[in-house]
Amino acid sequence: METTHTAAHPPSAEAMLVCVEGSERKKARENIKTGKLEAASVKEGKKELDSDGKEVKMELYPDSLELFGAHKYFAVGCSSLSGNRWDGQIVFGKYSMDSNSDVGLTLKKTAVVRTSTGICDIVFAGKTATPLLLSAGDTGAIECWQTGGNSTISLIPKPVSTLVGHSDIVSSLDIPGWSEKSSHILLSASWDKSIKLWDLSQSPFPVSTWTGHHDHVTQVRWSKLIPDLFVSTGKDGLVLLWDQRVAEPCGGIRVAGEASAVDVHPTIPYRLALGTSHGALTEIDLRVSPSTHDVKTQTSKQLVTSSAGKKENKAISPKNETSMVEGVRSVHGDRVSTVVYSLDGTMIASGSEDNSIRISSSQRDSAPCHTPPEQLQKLSMKEPVSAVAWVDDKKPRILSVSWDRRLRVHVPL
After folding, report:
1. Cross-strand partners of 196
2. I want to staple 215 with a disulfide (CB 3.0 to 4.6 A). Which of 51, 221, 236, 279 is the partner?
3. Cα separation of 95 and 400, whole Å?
4. Pair 56, 112: CB distance under 8 Å
């Protein structure tokens, strides 16, 4: 595995995302300035701008939700089966604090863009008023969309670049938050059992690949505190801790069923909130074995050189023994689809296919833990919940998307 991507000299803001800074992106930026866009694309966006401020309606079924707190953008990635193929949709807009609203927040949809592939996850890249929006598709490609940064043109209706490297559905994307200079580093997870690292300032191709899971990789998350560390979860029940400078996992655990959702604590290193396909929700510390039921795994390491000349990590298993997390009660009645810590780390919001959102308290000290969090509130929904996000404000609020094709605001008690 090459270590050139860990160099300590990130590019400047102007040089960032050079891989999508070609003629298409330059043309998009110029069109934003001059207002020149294809009329059909603009009409398509305006056609569905229907919301009452408290919720936003969508035509397709939402799978992912991402907020860009610096400029209060929201983006929802949607999918729907049409015949024998999936269609997709990006719903883009802004949220604003509103003291006159009973939920204290107003939602405004500003753009709707249809895509030729279903969208499984979505993430912002960049720290300016016009960040890129990256969408994970069910074709294995990652598309890059240019945001406009103004009320007239908020999202260009055509991707400015495509990242190609996965051979199956891309299930998860994440950009690190270590510093403003790290927003060009992208992690992607896929049903092809791999995790890939992309340096958007250097190349539209992955610079590293890890294959430690034995089934679909369901989610990947960077550490919020320790550069280079990230966590992955899989359909195989593995929760693995990685260092991007090292070929093998640093450690991990195995859970009963599928490890379906994970988030990393914002203030306590190595602590995770984890949801499973059995409806379990727990907090774990990857530094400590949670059970005496050890499952030994054979360590194997095979570094091969890909056709692109990059080193690829294959057939990786954890160096340390993994353990079953047993005796954890189910908080939800069905698969946990999303788990997110509040911005201060004191609460956890989890959404599930049991048509509910649960608000739970997080352990307050930094001691290692493997315990289910205390439930504080249950929010009943009409359909399965796909994603939730905490709004960056003094009073906690939650945005959620569910299969009733609505983006909603919730105020925890």
Report:
1. 188, 209
2. 236
3. 13
4. no
* pLDDT tens column, 204-230: 899 999 999 999 999 999 999 998 999
From CA 88, how far away is CA 367, in angstroms rounded? 43
- Long-range contacts of 274-277, Cβ-Cβ distance < 8 Å, separation of 24 or more: 274/233, 274/239, 274/325, 274/339, 275/332, 275/335, 275/336, 275/337, 275/338, 275/339, 275/350, 275/352, 276/335, 276/336, 277/335, 277/336
**Residues in a beta bridge with 102:** none
pLDDT of the residue at 287: 77
pLDDT band at 17 (very low <50, low <70, confident <90, very high): very low
Query: 249 with 266: CB under 8 angstroms?
Result: no
State how far the alpha carbon of 321 is from the alpha carbons of 123, 214, 249, 354, in Å: 33, 16, 11, 33
Instruction: Examine the pLDDT at 296 and tell me if it is beyond 80.
Output: no
Place of tokens 């693995």: 240
Radius of gyration of the chain (CA): 20
Polymer length in residues for the chain: 413
The per-residue pLDDT for range 82-102, each reduced to its tens digit, is: 666 678 999 999 999 887 777
* The one-letter amino acid at 324: M
Instruction: Please enumerate in sequence order all residues whose Cβ is within 8 A of that of 81, keeping only pairs 6 or more positions apart, or say none.
Output: 87
- The single residue listed with the structure tokens 């249950």 is 378
pLDDT tens digit sequence for 28-47 = 444 444 444 432 233 344 44
Cα-Cα end-to-end distance for the chain:
48
Task: With CA atoms as reference, report the closest residue to 335 among 259, 402, 264, 231.
Answer: 259
Residue found under tokens 């956890």: 348
Tell me the pLDDT band of 332, cut-offs 50, 70 and 90.
very high
CB 390 within 8 A of CB 349: yes
> Cβ distance 24 to 160 under 8 Å?
yes
Count CA atoms closer than 13 A to 381's CA, side-chain side: 28
**Rounded alpha-carbon distances, angstroms, from residue 105 to 149, 287, 375:** 20, 39, 25
CA dihedral for 9, 13, 14, 16, sign (positive or negative): positive
